[in-house]
Amino acid sequence: MTRTDEPVALFWFRRDLRLEDNVGLTHALKSGYSVLPIFIFDKNILEKLEDRHDRRLSFIHGALESLQKRITAAGSSLRVMHGTPEEALRRLLAEYDVRAVYANRDYEPYAVERDRQIGLMLDKSGIPFRTFKDQVIFEKNEVVKSDGTPYTVFTPYSRVWKKQLIQGDLIVSPTEQLMNNLVKTGPFPLPSLEETGFAGTDMLFKPPEIDTGIIADYHKTRNIPSLDGTTRLGIHLRFGTVSIRRLVAAAIPLSEVWLNELIWREFFMSILWHFPHVVDNSFRKKYDNISWRNNEEEFERWCKGMTGYPIVDAGMRELNATGFMHNRVRMITASFLTKHLLTDWRWGEAYFAARLLDYELSSNNGNWQWAAGSGCDAAPYFRVFNPAEQTRKFDPDLSYVKRWVPEHEDPGYPRMIIDHALARERALKTYKEGIR
Ligand SMILES: Cc1cc2nc3c(=O)[nH]c(=O)nc-3n(C[C@H](O)[C@H](O)[C@H](O)COP(=O)(O)OP(=O)(O)OC[C@H]3O[C@@H](n4cnc5c(N)ncnc54)[C@H](O)[C@@H]3O)c2cc1C
C-alpha cells in the first residue's frame, strides 16, 4: 500500500446516493481539499439481511454504478469498500493524508451510534468529522413545541413545519458544479454484488421521475390501489437518490395533500429521534400489556396472502411479488394482522421490513404502531377496519383484488380465517383488558 501525499477530504456516501443537491458533498467540495468520494458496504447491516436476493442491494449497486459513471467522467473515482465502517475508514487513513471526513446525518439509532464511534475514532487522529442535514427539511429539535418538547400529534407538527418553512430551506446546493474538486485518480473497481455476499435480481436502478401529473391528482387517486396514483418515490427517498428539497419545492404549488405525506415522513423520523424506545416497544407503554395470540399458522397464512379475505391477500401478494404495497392496503393488512388476528405488530413490522423496497425504520414502525393503536397519534384501538367495507370503498370493481387474487371466487380459495364480526368483538375485548 503506498500512501498518497496529497491532503484530501473524504466524502462518505450513505443514504444520499446522488450528486444533485447533496449538502454534505457540496460542503466537502468547497472545503479547499480534493475530495475522495467513498461508499462502504457495511457488514454490520448486510449481515442482518437474510435474503441473498435482496432487491434493495441491486438498487444500491445500480445507484453506485450510476454515480461511478458520472464521477469517472469528472476524472475521479468512487472508492467502494466492503467491511465495517471502522475497518474501512482505518484503511483509508493509512492510505491517504485525510484532513477531514464529510457525511450527511442519519437519524436511526444504529447510525447515530455508528457516527458517534467514528467521530471518536477520527478525533483521536485529529481529523474532524463534519456532518450535515440533507435527508430532511427539519431535523432533531427544529420543529418542537414552544416549551421545547416534541410534538406527538401530526396536525400541530405539520402546521408548525409549514409555518417555519422559508425559501432558504429549499435552496438547492450546487454539488454538480463543483465536481472539479474531486480527487484526480484512475478508476477504482466497483465490487460485484456477489463479492458483497448477494446475488443479482430483476431490480434495476432507474433515476427518479417526479411525475407532476400524479402529484397534482394525488388527492383524488391516492386511495385507489388499482391505479398508479402514487409516486413510487419511497425507495428514492430511502436511499437518497432524490433530493427532499426538490420534492417539497415540487409539492408546494401542486398538492398540499402530497406535501403532507412528505411531512408524515419527517414526523415519524422526529418520533424515532425523540422516542427511540419505539424501536422495540409500544409508543404508549400500556399497549405492551395486550395479550397477543401470536398464532404462527395464522401468521403464515397472512404472510402468504391466504387469509380468505381477498383485499388482505391481494396486498400481501403484491408485497411478496413486487416489494411494494399500496398505502391503503398496507393499512388494511396491518389492521387485519393486529386486530383480526391479534398478532403482535412487531411481527408484521419485521415482515414488511424484510420485503418493502421503500423500507424505512421510522415510517414502518410509526405506521405499524398507528395501525395497532399503540403509537403516537394512532387510530383509536376500537377502530377495526372492515375489509369488505374497505374493498367496497377503495376497490369497488375489484380490479386490484382480481389482479392479485384471480381465484378469489373459486371453491379452492381459502375460507375466511375468522369471521369479521367475531374478530372485531375479540379484538375490542382483548385490547380493553390489555390497556386497562
Ligand atoms: C403498515 C405500514 C407500513 C409502512 N411502511 C413504510 C416504510 O417502511 N417506508 C415508507 O417510506 N413508508 C411506509 N409506509 C407509508 C406509505 O405506505 C408509503 O410511504 C407509501 O405507500 C409509498 O408509496 P409512494 O412512494 O408511491 O408514496 P406517495 O404516496 O407518492 O408519497 C410520497 C412519499 O411520502 C412519504 N409518505 C407517504 N405516506 C406516508 C406515511 N403514511 N408515513 C410516512 N411517510 C409517508 C413516503 O416517503 C412516500 O414515498 C407504511 C404504511 C403502513 C400503513
Structural overview:
The structure is a single chain. With 436 residues, the chain is of the alpha/beta class. Among the domains are: 7-134, HUPs (Rossmann fold, 3-Layer(aba) Sandwich); 278-431, DNA Cyclobutane Dipyrimidine Photolyase, subunit A, domain 3, CATH 1.10.579.10. The protein has helices at residues 23-29, 43-46, 55-73, 85-95, 109-124, 154-164, 212-221, 234-239, 244-254, 256-274, 296-304, 310-322, 327-340, 345-355, 361-372, 387-394, 399-404, 420-434; strands at residues 4-13, 34-42, 79-83, 96-104, 129-132. The protein has a 5-stranded parallel β-sheet. Strand 1, helix 1 (23-29) and strand 2 (34-42) form a beta-alpha-beta unit. Helix 6 packs across helix 10 (256-274). The chain is globular, with a radius of gyration of 23 Å. Flavin-adenine dinucleotide (FAD) is lined by residues 222, 230-234, 237, 261-262, 264-265, 268, 327, 330-331, 334, 352, 356, 358-360, 363-364, 367-368, 371.
